[in-house]
């Protein structure tokens, strides 16, 4: 499958998780498009069969600035070609921000709902106050994501 990944980051952690996800997906035989600060045109030109969004949270529950152009383009155009695709969201946050924990990921999950992208498993929350190894922590979720994509393809 063609899996398009995109990320939102302030300090680079979400990009590291995205690169790790690319390796995992490629190892399972998928083609990946991942470019930090990708435009909507670039994303659609790849003709994705699945979407994986990975974002941290900044401010008080906000998406990082580097994801805002793509987020706005997606929300304003709601491309019909994405409707019905399988997808997933990995949210990075810090539970010490109790009221806005992983708020960026929640915004992305809401956008997926608006787009009609079907989350094949619940959003993963990676908590910076619990762990300093987000790539490793994401592995079980990524394995399940790969399995869910394969199950969906066979259906
Ligand atoms: C200024 C600032 C504001 C933050 N606000 C939130 C927040 O509202 N909710 C949350 O869950 N995490 C918040 N975080 C934590 C980051 O999302 C978390 O450390 C994440 O791992 C950073 O990933 P990044 O390097 O990809 O930006 C904040 C961090 C900073 C520095």
Topology:
Blueprint: E1 2-8, H1 13-27, E2 31-34, H2 40-45, E3 50-55, H3 68-77, E4 86-93, H4 103-115, E5 118-119, E6 124-127, H5 134-154
Parallel strand pairs: 1-2, 1-3, 3-4, 4-5, 4-6
Helix pairs in contact: 1-5
Bound molecules: flavin mononucleotide.
So, the CATH homologous superfamily? Flavodoxin domain
Kindly provide the name of the CATH class: Alpha Beta
Small molecules bound in the structure, each named once:
flavin mononucleotide
Structural class by secondary-structure content:
alpha/beta
**What value does the Rg take, in angstroms?**
14 Å
Number of helices: 5
Question: Given the C-alpha coordinates, what overall shape results?
Answer: globular
Major beta sheet summary:
6 strands, parallel
In short, what is this structure?
The chain has 155 residues and is an alpha/beta fold. It has helices at 13-27, 40-45, 68-77, 103-115, 134-154, and strands spanning 2-8, 31-34, 50-55, 86-93, 118-119, 124-127.
């Amino acid at each position: 499958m063609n899996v398009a990944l995109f990320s939102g980051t302030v300090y680079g952690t979400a990009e590291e998780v995205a690169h790790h996800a690319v390796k995992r997906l490629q190892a399972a035989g998928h083609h990946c498009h991942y470019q930090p600060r990708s435009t909507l045109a670039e994303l659609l030109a790849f003709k994705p069969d699945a979407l994986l969004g990975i974002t941290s949270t900044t401010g008080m529950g906000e998406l990082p600035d580097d994801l805002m152009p793509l987020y706005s383009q997606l929300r304003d155009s709601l491309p019909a070609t994405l409707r019905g695709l399988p997808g997933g969201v990995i949210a990075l946050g810090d539970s010490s921000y109790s009221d806005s924990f992983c708020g960026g990921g929640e915004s992305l999950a809401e956008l997926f709902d608006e787009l009609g992208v079907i989350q094949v498993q619940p959003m993963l929350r990676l908590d910076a106050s619990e762990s300093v190894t987000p790539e490793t922590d994401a592995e079980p979720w990524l394995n399940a994501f790969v399995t869910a994509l394969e199950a969906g393809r066979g259906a």
